[in-house]
Design goal:
By secondary structure, the protein is mainly alpha-helical. Among the domains are: 68 residues; 31 residues, no CATH class. Helix content is 47%, strand content 4%. The protein is built from five helices and two strands. Strands 1-2 form a two-stranded antiparallel ribbon. A hairpin with a 2-residue loop joins strand 1 and strand 2. The radius of gyration is 33 Å and the shape is flat. The protein starts with a helix and ends in a 9-residue tail after the last strand. The relative contact order is 0.06.
Protein backbone atom coordinates (compact mmCIF):
# COMPACT_ATOMS: atom_id res chain seq x y z
CA UNK A 1 0.00 0.00 0.00
CA UNK A 2 1.46 3.33 -1.02
CA UNK A 3 0.96 6.28 1.29
CA UNK A 4 1.40 9.84 0.14
CA UNK A 5 2.69 12.81 2.07
CA UNK A 6 -0.81 14.25 2.08
CA UNK A 7 -2.16 11.10 3.75
CA UNK A 8 0.60 11.26 6.38
CA UNK A 9 -0.37 14.84 7.14
CA UNK A 10 -4.03 13.89 7.54
CA UNK A 11 -3.22 10.88 9.76
CA UNK A 12 -0.96 13.04 11.95
CA UNK A 13 -3.72 15.63 12.43
CA UNK A 14 -6.23 12.92 13.35
CA UNK A 15 -3.85 11.30 15.87
CA UNK A 16 -3.06 14.67 17.47
CA UNK A 17 -6.75 15.47 17.92
CA UNK A 18 -7.61 12.18 19.70
CA UNK A 19 -8.55 12.34 23.39
CA UNK A 20 -8.01 9.40 25.78
CA UNK A 21 -11.06 7.45 26.92
CA UNK A 22 -9.67 6.84 30.41
CA UNK A 23 -7.84 9.02 32.87
CA UNK A 24 -4.16 9.53 32.13
CA UNK A 25 -1.37 9.41 34.70
CA UNK A 26 -1.64 13.17 35.29
CA UNK A 27 -5.34 12.88 36.08
CA UNK A 28 -5.26 9.69 38.16
CA UNK A 29 -6.62 9.75 41.68
CA UNK A 30 -4.15 9.98 44.55
CA UNK A 31 -4.34 8.16 47.83
CA UNK A 32 -4.77 10.17 51.04
CA UNK A 33 -1.11 9.53 51.88
CA UNK A 34 0.07 10.78 48.48
CA UNK A 35 -2.16 13.83 48.84
CA UNK A 36 -0.80 14.70 52.30
CA UNK A 37 2.81 14.26 51.16
CA UNK A 38 2.14 16.49 48.14
CA UNK A 39 0.58 19.13 50.42
CA UNK A 40 3.20 18.71 53.17
CA UNK A 41 5.05 22.03 52.63
CA UNK A 42 1.82 24.02 52.89
CA UNK A 43 0.63 22.00 55.89
CA UNK A 44 3.98 22.48 57.66
CA UNK A 45 3.72 26.24 57.12
CA UNK A 46 0.22 26.14 58.65
CA UNK A 47 1.66 24.38 61.72
CA UNK A 48 4.40 27.01 62.01
CA UNK A 49 1.77 29.75 61.86
CA UNK A 50 0.06 28.20 64.89
CA UNK A 51 -2.62 25.89 63.49
CA UNK A 52 -3.33 22.78 65.56
CA UNK A 53 -3.53 19.38 63.84
CA UNK A 54 -7.28 19.23 64.50
CA UNK A 55 -7.73 22.59 62.76
CA UNK A 56 -5.70 21.42 59.77
CA UNK A 57 -7.75 18.20 59.63
CA UNK A 58 -10.94 20.30 59.59
CA UNK A 59 -9.60 22.43 56.71
CA UNK A 60 -8.66 19.28 54.78
CA UNK A 61 -12.14 17.84 55.48
CA UNK A 62 -13.65 20.99 53.95
CA UNK A 63 -11.60 20.25 50.81
CA UNK A 64 -12.78 16.62 50.68
CA UNK A 65 -9.70 14.99 52.19
CA UNK A 66 -10.65 12.65 55.04
CA UNK A 67 -7.78 12.04 57.47
CA UNK A 68 -7.43 11.66 61.25
CA UNK A 69 -5.05 13.89 63.24
CA UNK A 70 -2.80 10.95 64.18
CA UNK A 71 -2.59 9.84 60.55
CA UNK A 72 -1.86 13.39 59.42
CA UNK A 73 1.00 13.65 61.92
CA UNK A 74 2.39 10.30 60.72
CA UNK A 75 2.25 11.31 57.04
CA UNK A 76 3.84 14.72 57.71
CA UNK A 77 6.67 13.04 59.62
CA UNK A 78 7.19 10.69 56.67
CA UNK A 79 7.25 13.65 54.27
CA UNK A 80 9.93 15.32 56.45
CA UNK A 81 12.01 12.13 56.43
CA UNK A 82 11.74 11.91 52.63
CA UNK A 83 12.76 15.56 52.29
CA UNK A 84 15.76 15.08 54.60
CA UNK A 85 16.80 11.93 52.72
CA UNK A 86 16.69 13.80 49.39
CA UNK A 87 18.66 16.69 50.92
CA UNK A 88 21.34 14.37 52.36
CA UNK A 89 21.60 12.48 49.07
CA UNK A 90 22.02 15.76 47.17
CA UNK A 91 24.70 16.97 49.61
CA UNK A 92 26.56 13.66 49.37
CA UNK A 93 26.54 13.89 45.58
CA UNK A 94 27.83 17.50 45.60
CA UNK A 95 30.14 17.99 48.60
CA UNK A 96 31.49 21.32 47.36
CA UNK A 97 29.08 24.16 47.02
CA UNK A 98 29.31 26.22 43.84
CA UNK A 99 27.39 29.11 45.39
CA UNK A 100 29.17 31.99 47.10
CA UNK A 101 30.53 30.97 50.48
CA UNK A 102 28.02 33.17 52.29
CA UNK A 103 25.18 31.21 50.68
CA UNK A 104 26.73 27.77 51.12
CA UNK A 105 25.98 26.06 54.40
CA UNK A 106 28.72 23.46 53.89
CA UNK A 107 31.52 25.92 53.23
CA UNK A 108 34.11 26.14 55.95
CA UNK A 109 36.13 29.23 56.70
CA UNK A 110 37.19 29.33 53.08
CA UNK A 111 36.01 27.45 49.99
CA UNK A 112 38.43 24.79 48.75
CA UNK A 113 38.85 26.36 45.32
CA UNK A 114 39.65 29.86 46.64
CA UNK A 115 43.27 30.92 46.21
CA UNK A 116 45.23 31.45 49.41
CA UNK A 117 46.87 34.86 49.92
CA UNK A 118 50.63 34.83 49.23
CA UNK A 119 52.98 34.50 52.16
CA UNK A 120 55.05 37.64 52.61
CA UNK A 121 58.81 37.35 52.84
CA UNK A 122 60.99 39.73 54.83
CA UNK A 123 62.68 41.13 51.70
CA UNK A 124 59.32 41.75 50.05
CA UNK A 125 58.06 43.53 53.16
CA UNK A 126 61.20 45.67 53.21
CA UNK A 127 60.68 46.64 49.57
CA UNK A 128 57.09 47.58 50.24
CA UNK A 129 58.06 49.66 53.24
CA UNK A 130 60.52 51.65 51.09
CA UNK A 131 63.42 50.75 53.34
CA UNK A 132 61.76 51.82 56.55
CA UNK A 133 60.27 55.13 55.41
CA UNK A 134 56.67 53.84 55.54
CA UNK A 135 55.35 52.14 58.65
CA UNK A 136 52.43 50.10 57.20
CA UNK A 137 52.08 47.57 54.42
CA UNK A 138 49.15 45.37 53.43
CA UNK A 139 49.89 41.79 52.41
CA UNK A 140 47.09 39.37 51.57
CA UNK A 141 44.49 41.50 53.32
CA UNK A 142 46.52 41.86 56.53
CA UNK A 143 48.16 45.02 57.79
CA UNK A 144 51.82 44.50 58.65
CA UNK A 145 53.40 46.97 61.07
CA UNK A 146 57.00 46.10 61.88
CA UNK A 147 57.97 46.60 65.50
CA UNK A 148 61.71 46.40 64.87
CA UNK A 149 63.68 48.60 62.48
CA UNK A 150 64.19 46.95 59.10
CA UNK A 151 67.97 47.19 59.40
CA UNK A 152 67.84 44.79 62.37
CA UNK A 153 65.86 42.08 60.53
Amino acid sequence: MAITHEQIKTIRQELNSLKPDTATAGNSELTVKQTIIALAPALERMKKRGFELTEIVAKLHDKGIEVKPQTLAKYLAEARRQKDARKNKRQAANPHCSAPKTACRNAGPQAADTAQPPVAKAAEIANRLNNGKERRVYMGGFEIIPDTPLGEL
